[in-house]
Amino acid sequence: MRKTIAVYVENKYGVLARISGLFMRRGFNIDSLTVGETEDPDFSRVTVTMDADDNILNQVVNQLNKLYNVKKVKVLERGSSTERELLLLKLANTADKRSDIMAACEIYNAKIIDYSRRTISIEVTGDSDKIQSFVELMIPNGIIEMCRTGVVALERGDKVLAEN
Known about the structure:
Layout: E1 2-10, H1 15-26, E2 32-37, E3 43-51, H2 54-66, E4 70-76, E5 81-92, H3 95-107, E6 111-115, E7 119-126, H4 128-138, E8 143-148, E9 152-155
């Protein structure tokens, strides 16, 4: 089952290497990993998604909590958190496929961010299922290049990861 873990860490050199090294040493696979500065420039937020049962998840959380630069670890539950991902996609722009691409963009609330005679670049945001569905829909249209971010997530409501 896919799990999402938010890790609040000091924004210092080597912290990401220690976190990814922890996963590597334990033989746990990371499905997606995103890192970015938070509202406080002294701290970063690492969001990790992985397939794990409760036993493995508890091991990961306990090991993350032992790392020196980690300030807080939180498992984000589906339904009580909001998750988003970003996809940038470059497609072949051909007359016979253009209307299908434009219709799909409208349905998926995608934005055309670059347009030329030979290519169309598209931006799509949403949950991972929406992103994957859009990619599968676009495969027959000739994907030239694709870049997908990892998941970013926040808890719903008044809860804040940085608070203790």
